[in-house]
From TrEMBL:
CC cofactor note: Binds 2 magnesium ions per subunit.
Site (Important for catalytic activity and assists the phosphoryl transfer reaction to Asp8 by balancing charge and orienting the reacting groups): 115, 146
One biological process term in Gene Ontology: carbohydrate metabolic process
Gene: pgmB
Organism classification: Bacteria, Bacillati, Bacillota, Clostridia, Lachnospirales
Keywords: Carbohydrate metabolism, Cytoplasm, Isomerase, Magnesium, Metal-binding, Phosphoprotein
Pfam families cross-referenced by the UniProt entry: Hydrolase
Catalysed reaction equations from the record: beta-D-glucose 1-phosphate = beta-D-glucose 6-phosphate
Entry protein name: Beta-phosphoglucomutase
Main location: cytoplasm
Family from the record: Belongs to the HAD-like hydrolase superfamily. CbbY/CbbZ/Gph/YieH family.
Source organism of this protein record: Vallitalea pronyensis
Active site residues per record: 8 (proton donor/acceptor), 10 (proton donor/acceptor)
Amino acid sequence: QYKCFIFDMDGVITETSEQHYQAWKQCADELGIDIDRTFNEKLKGVSRMDSLERILAYGNRSHDFTAEEKAELAYKKNENYKEMILKCTEDDLFEGVKELFEGLKEKGIKIAIGSASKNAPTLVNLLGIKDYIDYIVDPASVEKGKPAPDIFLKAAHDLGIDPSACVGVEDAEAGVEAIKSAGMLAVGIGEASVLHQADMVYAHTKDIQLADIL
Ligand code: G6P
Ligand code: MG
């Protein structure tokens, strides 16, 4: 019997993975590194600094910047991103999310947010879903980001629920890997060919069938 659903945020609850991509694209363009959407799949679910490192490595520029310069690049990306999400409202919630949350609440199943994003609490407020959420993992409180299981295990631990009674919902390859390493059921959102490690994959969050999972 599942007692908790741990949702990734960007790309699962709302389409902010697009804003992350646009903000990174702008950063990469300024560095003369050409990134595209295929490469971006490798950035989904990956922390801010790790994303920057991946972009620099992709452009063979890993050793061109000091730690301070890298921190500045990441800071600029985040300022740009924050400006992009400023206008987010309840209307930006993916279709079906509220209904899904209602369904889980009715069954007494806890809802947690397991995002690598330090902006998750801000978005939860902007999207007007705060009252549904039992717990938001602070990604700064865990040692390793996705694909390590830490973020998902932290949610289970702090809610006092065994990982085997948790379901993780993810749109990222790194995220699905994290859920499986945590010993949880992995629900993928997107393409089955990309999320091949997931136990089940739905194209969109609104396609999730609770009856199939529970
Ligand atoms: C999520 C997104 C990533 C993003 C990461 C960190 O996992 O999928 O694209 O890099 O969060 O987000 P932050 O808002 O802390 O920069
Ligand atoms: Mg995501």
